[in-house]
From TrEMBL:
Keywords: Glycoprotein, Hydrolase, Protease, Serine protease, Signal. Gene3D superfamilies: 2.60.40.2310, Peptidase S8/S53 domain. It comes from Arabidopsis thaliana (Mouse-ear cress). This is Serine protease like protein. Residues 21-174 form the Peptidase S8/S53 domain. Residues 231-328 form the Subtilisin-like protease fibronectin type-III domain. PANTHER family: PROPROTEIN CONVERTASE SUBTILISIN/KEXIN (PTHR10795). One of its GO terms (biological process) is proteolysis. Belongs to the peptidase S8 family. It holds the Pfam family fn3_6. It comes from the Eukaryota. CDD domains: PA_subtilisin_like. One of its GO terms (molecular function) is serine-type endopeptidase activity.
Amino acid sequence: MANTAASGEELVADSHLLPAIAVGKKTGDLLREYVKSDSKPTALLVFKGTVLDVKPSPVVAAFSSRGPNTVTPEILKPDVIGPGVNILAGWSDAIGPTGLDKDSRRTQFNIMSGTSMSCPHISGLAGLLKAAHPEWSPSAIKSALMTTAYVLDNTNAPLHDAADNSLSNPYAHGSGHVDPQKALSPGLVYDISTEEYIRFLCSLDYTVDHIVAIVKRPSVNCSKKFSDPGQLNYPSFSVLFGGKRVVRYTRKVTNVGAASSVYKVTVNGAPSVGISVKPSKLSFKSVGEKKRYTVTFVSKKGVSMTNKAEFGSITWSNPQHEVRSPVAFSWNRF
């Protein structure tokens, strides 16, 4: 089974009725040329055992969901990535491992890949965080998973995209790959109340009936709504300049680390954008204390970025924690 360009070098362990082996596009191209050049091509399949410590790892799966967010471009998607390739999972006795009607084999386990495999991993982590921090809201849990995610693989290089082996970016990996241990103690979280979500939905011009159905509240009004959906207190930033040169957002963080904590900001900017953060230092006297900061993004003069995106990050850190938010920049709607 040889990959085409759509799957690149990603190898997925599918079940087959006949003995089979999966190879990437490069090897597949060589095999196709060999078959064309030999009237009696032969091959030998040898199982060499389970391979451990694969490098580089992780990589973004070729089938993984991608941005940009074309519905609400002011919100960066995806949020995070997690394990979802070649996962040993429970399997129903109602059907064979290939899913074909003619497959009479039955097994309690199967190796599967897809977002349906990564979703249980992330959901399980959310449950773990809720058990450790019962007082945290869903938004706080999401924030902890996002701001502690990592973007370097096990060779200490930036994450790669299995689709074409290029460097990945936040439109492919969001905030990065989840880190369960670090998510348990994120230091700061970006919390979002139901009222803030209502203002967000109002800014998207949902009808009151639609919003009532979503938030399950008998009475809702849009007398207060965001002028820009990007004002939502989200753990990441998606800056759409449109016809503007300046975009400004204010975020609020809650200290869930130790009392008397001090964080300093580090900005990783994009070549075409200037970024300033005020204040540049946040001091918390107590646990649960909230602080605001404002980020100003300025598109540099003379920049023509039609249908192109750039990326950066904003990180609040102290000796114990790094609270990282990816930033995506676009000049036009995709």
